[in-house]
Write a structure and sequence with these properties.
- By secondary structure, the protein is of the alpha+beta class.
- 34% of the residues lie in helices and 19% in strands.
- The protein contains 17 helices and 19 strands.
- Strands 12, 13, 14, 15, 16, 17, 18 and 19 form an eight-stranded antiparallel sheet that branches.
- A hairpin with a 2-residue loop joins strand 18 and strand 19.
- The radius of gyration is 23 Å and the shape is globular.
- It starts with a helix and ends in a 36-residue tail after the last helix.
- Bound molecules: flavin-adenine dinucleotide (FAD).
- Flavin-adenine dinucleotide (FAD) binds next to strand 3, helix 8 and strand 10.
- Flavin-adenine dinucleotide binds next to strand 3, helix 8 and strand 10.
Length: 545
């Protein structure tokens, strides 16, 4: 039986790479990466899973699945560690059951049952987490774990064309959001690289960032209101364009990673669909010079929607430029007026700072090559792992004054660790998002893996890289969330009183401590905690969506 669903990116088993394709792919690797690929790895059968330790109460029984591949899929996200463990048929933590609620009433009933039964609940959107966010590694305090898969809570429920916003259900995948808005002339315009396989609820729970580099980068920027079911009741904020009424209830749910409640739907702001588009690619002598130009663009209000700056190595690896120059890909769009004039101003500003605009044909080809490398990225990663390449990414954000030092320190520490642990390899950097006061560098690691030891290899490299990043003043994540993998750095990054406040919020919203234990904060469930009685739960109506 195929295990592709457990570890792969494609939508169906039919998209699993074939050994012949992997062999062909691996043949060209040495000339690109400087080390050879290995013979294609054959995915192993799924290990025998332990019997589920818990059973749903009879009224919920039809929502549960104990099918082994289903359970294994819900035990893993999509980080390198996840893909390797999936390929080996060896997920470490597998939920006892996968539960698929059909509406808010089901969600509330599952939380009630889990709170009283001492069962941990791990929300699951698209399962594209790269930080251990969906892995049910919850500690030993629970009688069992369930993965709460929200994919049945899907669709565009309502569009308000006057205010330009849509009510989107949490389990809606990216393409279905845009399909649901077709015909309205409006778009959410939120395109993370994982667009195909991630959901509205996941974006909110992880504070995801889309593909656009300047303006409205994070999902935070387009959230108008959020509705969530918590073990203590329904949390729904008002639809407002802005508000000065105290700390924002939406902000507390943004990035909450399922620890405070289950996001069921949200009103998100829309925009007119762009009809004018233009792209241009510039070459910079190196990343530092390109970054200065990018800073000037953002700080002077000249930055177009897309501004991706790739270092020379990433530029070569993606085929964007073959010269060894850094590449700055600019892409402008508008729903009202041609964008070429504004782009010309941006190009002139970059030229003043030492960048060279490519000839029009070369420039368009470079931008298209970069775009298709970006879209193919997740599939390419699969081929790399099957060819024995250790491949992982990590990202951060830092103010402009510390950017160059951070990039140098992180690159040096990661490169040194790769030399020690893998005997070599490559670290590349690109700037994915730019702000008036700083930018988000994104690193990719490619190195020869030792089959069977990849997880410890990556653990050592990751520790060196992220220690350097933390020491250089960056955040442990710009948009990948904290999950379980970033906890040790996140705990050092956040203020201690803030951690206390989060703990208090967790106690109030999730008294039995069942929601995604292990992310954001540790909270041992209090002994003998029962669920709030049904009368305490406010706001859950009888109507399911
Ligand atoms: C190849 C690849 C490319 C990626 N590109 C990007 C990118 O460009 N930008 C970016 O920001 N991220 C990116 N990611 C990371 C990932 O896609 C994001 O974190 C995404 O937001 C996760 O959404 P999801 O629906 O898959 O959530 P999941 O992975 O299912 O869950 C993520 C976390 O949110 C919680 N959660 C999920 N749904 C809910 C809900 N309804 N209520 C409460 N909690 C919930 C889960 O418990 C978990 O802690 C990428 C990942 C991969 C593998």
């Amino acid at each position: 039986m195929s295990t592709y669903r457990v570890w792969g990116w494609g939508a169906s088993d039919g998209e699993a790479p074939r050994a012949a394709d992997v062999r062909e792919f691996a043949r060209g690797l040495e000339s690109v990466l400087g080390f050879p690929g290995q013979p294609p790895e054959e995915p192993a059968p799924l290990r025998a899973l332990e019997e589920p330790r818990v059973a749903l109460q009879p009224s919920l029984a039809t929502l549960g699945s104990a099918e082994p591949v289903d359970r294994a899929r819900h035990g893993l996200g999509r980080s390198y560690r996840d893909v390797v463990r999936g390929l080996r048929g060896a997920p470490d933590h597998v939920p006892d059951l996968v539960v698929r609620p059909g509406g808010e009433g089901d969600v509330a009933a599952v939380l009630d049952w889990a709170s009283s039964a001492g069962v941990a609940v791990v929300p699951f959107g698209g399962g594209s987490s790269v930080v251990g966010g969906v892995e049910p590694m919850v500690g030993g305090y629970f009688r069992g774990t369930v993965s709460l898969d929200l994919q049945r809570l899907a669709g565009v429920a309502e569009v308000d064309p006057v205010s330009r916003a849509a009510l989107l259900r949490a389990g809606t995948f990216g393409p279905d959001v845009e399909r649901g808005l077709a015909g309205t002339g409006l778009t959410l315009r939120f395109f993370p690289q994982s667009f195909e396989r991630s959901t509205v609820g996941g974006w909110i729970a992880t504070r995801a960032a889309g593909h656009y580099a300047a303006r409205l980068q994070h999902i935070d920027d387009v959230v108008e209101s959020v509705r969530a079911v918590t073990p203590s009741g329904v949390w729904e904020s008002r639809r407002l364009p802005a508000s000065g009424a105290g700390p924002s209830p939406d902000r507390l749910l943004l990035g909450s990673e399922g620890a405070f409640g289950i996001v069921t739907e949200a009103w998100l702001r829309l925009q007119s669909r762009p009809v004018h588009r233009a792209r241009v690619t510039l070459a910079a002598p190196d990343l530092a010079v390109g970054a200065e130009a990018l800073r000037a663009l953002v700080q002077n209000g000249l930055a177009p929607a897309t501004c991706r700056l790739l270092d020379g190595c990433e530029s070569v690896l993606t085929g964007t430029l073959t010269t060894g120059d850094a590449a700055l890909v600019l892409g402008a769009e508008s729903s009202t007026a041609p964008v070429e004039p504004a782009l010309r101003v941006a190009v002139a500003a970059c030229a003043d700072l030492g960048l060279r605009a490519l000839l029009p044909e070369e420039s368009t080809a470079a931008a298209q090559t970069w775009r298709s490398a970006f879209l193919r990225g997740p599939y390419l990663r699969e081929l790399l792992v099957l060819s024995g390449v250790l491949v992982e990414t990590f990202e951060t954000a830092v103010t402009w004054d510390r950017l160059a030092a951070l990039v140098d320190a992180v690159t040096a520490a990661t490169q040194a660790a790769l030399g020690e642990v893998c005997g070599g390899g490559t670290v590349t950097c690109r700037i994915t998002h730019a702000y008036p006061d700083g930018a988000a560098p994104y690193f990719t690691v490619l190195a020869p893996a030792r089959r069977g030891s990849e997880l410890s290899q990556w653990a050592d490299v990751e520790a060196a890289a992220k220690e350097a990043l933390h020491a250089a003043g960056g955040t442990i994540t710009h948009h990948h969330a904290v999950g379980r993998d970033h906890r040790r750095w996140y705990d050092r990054q956040r203020p201690d009183p803030f951690a206390l406040a989060l703990g208090a919020a967790k106690s109030a919203l999730d008294p039995a401590g069942i929601l995604n234990p292990g992310v954001l904060i540790d909270r041992r469930p209090p002994p003998d905690t029962g669920p709030p009685d049904a009368g305490q739960r406010r706001g859950i109506g009888p109507v399911d969506h």
